[in-house]
Each structure stands twice: as C-alpha cells, then as structure tokens.
Amino acid sequence: MDISSLPVQLSRFTPLVWVMLIGNFFVRASYYMVWPFLAVMLYESYGLSATEVGLLLTGSATLAVFLGFYTGNLADRFGRTRMLYVAVLVGVVSFAMLALANALWLFAVAVFLACMPRTLWEAPSKALLTEELANPKDRELALHLLYFLVNVGAALGPLYGLWAGLNGEQFSFIYTAVSYLGLLVALLYFRPRRDGATPATQSAPKFSQWLKILNKDRTFLVVLVATTLVYFVYAQCDTSLVQYLTRADVPELAWLISAVIITNSTVIIVCQFPLLHLMRNWSIEHRLYLGGAILAVSQVMMALNDVHNTWGWIVAMIVLSLSEAIMFSNINVYIDRLAPDNLKASYFGAAGLCSLGYAFAPILGGLVLDLSTGVILFVLTTLTSFVALVFYKIAQLQLKGAPRAVSEV
Known about the structure:
Layout: H1 6-11, H2 15-46, H3 50-78, H4 80-100, H5 104-132, H6 136-167, H7 174-189, H8 199-202, H9 207-216, H10 218-236, H11 240-247, H12 253-278, H13 284-304, H14 310-338, H15 344-351, H16 356-371, H17 374-400
C-alpha cells in the first residue's frame, strides 16, 4: 500500500463504504464497552458465582460465533444490507434491555443479544464494502482501514463502558441504543439500490449447499485452521498471561497489565499503515509469513523472560503487536481474495469461526498453567505459531497447484 496514493484512493470511497467503516468501529466499540465489565455487573448486581458468570459469557460468545457462520450465508442469499438492518435493530433492543432489565433472566438475555450486533454486522459489512469498490487496491485499503478503526473502537469502548456501566447508572446503556438508531438512519439513507437483487445474491446457495462447497474448498479450510491457531496464540496474551503474572505475585501487577494493554493498542494504531507501506510490494502470503515469524519471536521472548522483569514483558508485547498489525488486516484481504463474489459474506462468516481460537484459549491456557508452568505455555504457543505458518504455506502451495474446487461450483 503506497501512502502517497491514499488521498486519491480515499476519494473513490462511496458514502456507503464510509458507513460500513464507521459502523464497524461503532459496533466493535459498543461490544467492548459491555464485555469487559459484564462479569463485574453480574457479580455485584445479581450475585452470580465465577463459574456461572463464565458459563453465561462463554456460552453467549460461542453461540454468537456459530450464528455468524449461518447468517453470513443468509446475507449472501437475501441481501447483505438487510442483515445489517437486523444487526442494528438487535443492537437497539439489546442495549435498551441492558439499561432497563431488573431481573436476572432478562439481563442474561440482554447479555446474549449484546454479542449479536458484532456477529451479524461483520461478515455482510465486509462483503458489502468489497462489493462497493471495484479496484482491488481500494478494497485492500478499505479492509486495512477497517481493522484500524476496529482497534480504535476496541481501545475506546472500555473507556466509555467504565463510565456508562460502572461509574454511572445502568440506565446509561440507553445512550448506546439511541446511537444504534442513528446508525440505522445512516444505513437507510446510504443503502445500495441493488440490495437483494444482484446476480450474486440470486446465485448464492442454500446453507446445506454452502456447507458442501466449503467442504470442497480445502485451501480455505487450511487457511481457517491456520488463522484459528494464530488467534489462539494471540489470545494467550490477553488471558493466560494475566493469570501467569497473577500467580507469580508480580509487584505492581495492575500497572503492568494496564501498560501491556495500552502498549498493544498504541503499537497497532501507530505502526499499522507504516508497516503496510513498507510491504506494499509484498504478496499477501509473504506478509503473513513475516507476521507469523514475528509472532513466534514474541512467544520465545515471553518464554525466556523472567516473570518479574516488567520491561521484558512490555518489549515482548511490542514485538507481538507488530505481528498483529501485519497479520490481522492482511487475513481479511486474503479471505476476500479467496471468496467468490456470490459468497463474500458466507466466507467472511465462516472466517468468524476462527474466533473459537479466542474462545478456547482461556480454558486450554489455564489447563497448561495448572499442570505445568508459564514457560511451558509459551513454548507451546511458539510451536503453535510455527504450525500455523506451515498451514499458510500449505494453502499457498494448493493455490499454485490444482484449481480450487469452489471455482467449479
């Protein structure tokens, strides 16, 4: 990506593209506004045990992931904008319920629904965004900008949630519900004229047929496995690392955890576009190889770092964040290139299954910490990083070999 051409490329973005970008920022920010603080609210307001809170949050997130897989196909079949309407309306309802709920069962339903806008929005919005931009370079820029805004949303969301959910009244969630109404108005005003009537949506297969297509597309399945492993490794630094440091009685733990989180967000936001500019002539595969190699280095650094060496953890997080800045947005670009035009949302929805790497990371990472040590955990994540690289290489070799089965469907 050539930074000097940014103004020209941005001028080709349609109003709908900007709605998709800003909508993704808003949906992700609202998700992180709620998610980090729900455990506290469920304990303080409703007296749930740690196990009960864990079951509710993990169950909600897992169901949302699988529903996203299904709704991606629905978006291809019945119109991507229509699915976005559903996502926004669910956002209005869920945050209104969070604001008004006065019973545990009602609040639990609201928690589940609050996971849904992100799941329902992501796949069709990415598909619609790429459909709006004919130039492949413009699509690539839009997907990179999308990831940038998602990170900004993830950074700002908890700050607003701290004010609205913890320091303010529960009723403060109503402001987010009203904001979702504003997003709905923008979506209605800039909606594409052809929604639900394109040859792409008319030729999209039913879900059972889509599963058969997916099963034949071995290259994409290999990419899914590789990406799931990558997400699993990144998630260890969000969950298991904190447990490791807590058990080791690290001094000034709260400061260290805050410093690690801030470092991660700052490095990604500051370095993403300069790194993409430096690699503008690289293939997507080579970018992923570099990002995966840097990820493995970060895990080696964590395995070798003394648990009480505060700056060692921060430096390792800087290295990991550089890897994340390279890999995450390029994974979206890679999936876009693998997906046929009539199955964009289906493919992005299937890619959402990779989030299971995040879902299972706390369980598996905690098990390793219980049975062994943090050093062993990061040795295993190092090996996992290399296995992911092998899978990406296998996918590249398959692309160079026989034609993909999906092209024949």
